[in-house]
Design goal:
single chain, 193 residues, mainly alpha, 8 helices, 77% helix, globular
Amino acid sequence: MNILKKMVDFVVSISKVATAFGISAGVALAFVNVVARYLFDSSLTWAGELTIYLFLWSVFFGAVYCFKEDAHIAVDVFLLKAPPKVAKILMILTLLISLIFTVAIAYYGYEYLLLYIDLGEMSVDLDIPLWIPFAVIPVSFAFSSIVLIYRLIETIKTPSDKIHKPSEAEILLEEMGSEELLKEVHRKTGGML
């Protein structure tokens, strides 16, 4: 398990760097291209395509980090209202479905990548093999699968009564630092927030 934890930490750190680099470089490149176009009446022909690839890579690798932090959008109304044992089963089921999805996309993304390598397709503006920007699909989904395997094992090992996932309102109220306020909100809303 310790090896898996180290692997998850490594994968997440790579994902964070790739996300930060992709967003920063994409914004900088888009800015330089706009300045060049409007001030110097000349633009970098390859900048648009590279900017798109940089943003796509940052989105795909950002998703890996979101899996680690459980930050993806989720409809968790049943999870919040369910008894602890049912909530744990629902979480395990959700993680299993997510894992099956990410493994399938990683596998078929790899197959798609091999097709692009065989075809020798090149990008129009950058003149690089298209398999290079498309490599993000199998790599990022494989990273996501590793993170989901770790979260699934951790969820299975965690006792049902320790799995409580706080709602957004609880998180905000806790950050405000008032335990009494949290109790009062629960009392007035019947625990709906």
